[in-house]
Amino acid sequence: MKKELPSSFPQEILPDLISYLKHLEGKGIRSLYLDDIEESGPFEQPSSTSAEGGEPVPVTAIRKDLAELEEGVRACTDCPLHETRTQVVFGVGNPGTKVMFIGEAPGRDEDLQGEPFVGRAGQLLTKILEAIDQKRENVYITNILKCRPPDNRDPQESEVRCCEKYLISQIELIQPKLICALGRIAAQWLLQTKAPLGTLRTGEYYYQGIRVLVTYHPAALLRNPQFKRPAWEDFKKLKAMLEASP
Ligand code: SF4
Fold first, then answer.
1. Does residue 128 fall inside a structural domain?
2. How many domains does the chain have?
3. Is there a contact between 73 and 88 (Cβ–Cβ < 8 Å)?
4. Do 145 and 106 contact (CB within 8 A), yes or no?
5. What are the backbone dihedrals phi and psi of residue 86, each rounded to the nearest 5 degrees, phi first?
6. Over the stretch 25-43, which tens digit does the pLDDT of each residue have?
7. 0.85 exceeded by pTM
8. Which of 142, 147, 153 has most ligand 1 atoms within 8 Å of its beta carbon, as the pocket-test mutant?
């Protein structure tokens, strides 16, 4: 819900306040308490070496930072899903990619193999990527949750809140030009909305300045073949966006 600022609020500090809140959000802080402010340290403007300007960060440095992050995630016990996982499913692909694909959570095959999108739905995603001239190893693929929910149930909000810090860091490190949200759960998290997938597919959205394209989860395409045609339209759009992107 949007909050209105009191009329006495000094408008001149509003841009800095918004920047600061975005900075906190980037650290995974979505509910603000005084302790959060103290823990998050003094506000620093984002580095000028971001995607918005300056020297690009070398891919080897991003790979190293991702590996360090992954090591931490492998030891994570922040939510009850660690008790039932076989292994953490962090993410795979090219850290220097222009496009990140974000799904919901690992399924049975992913939990066993430790890699996202390797089951039937993953094989379909790989085929779709090939159809738009993208190799799986040249994009980056991950999920909102890094551990499998039992019986492939939907992620619970508390689990998403616990785990989102890792995805936020992945996006910050990779700085893709484009994010493709695979399915409702990923789209609703990225866009902080409860709107249905059908609505989100058709809009133009951004996450932290990164263009977000919403489409069906490949598992939904397997269950509902009638979604394949509209999904193909989405992927053609994605292909055009990637070709237009520097
Ligand atoms: S789902 Fe995320 S927060 Fe929960 S245990 Fe796994 S890595 Fe940690």
1. yes
2. 1
3. yes
4. yes
5. -85, -45
6. 655 555 554 444 434 333 3
7. no
8. 147
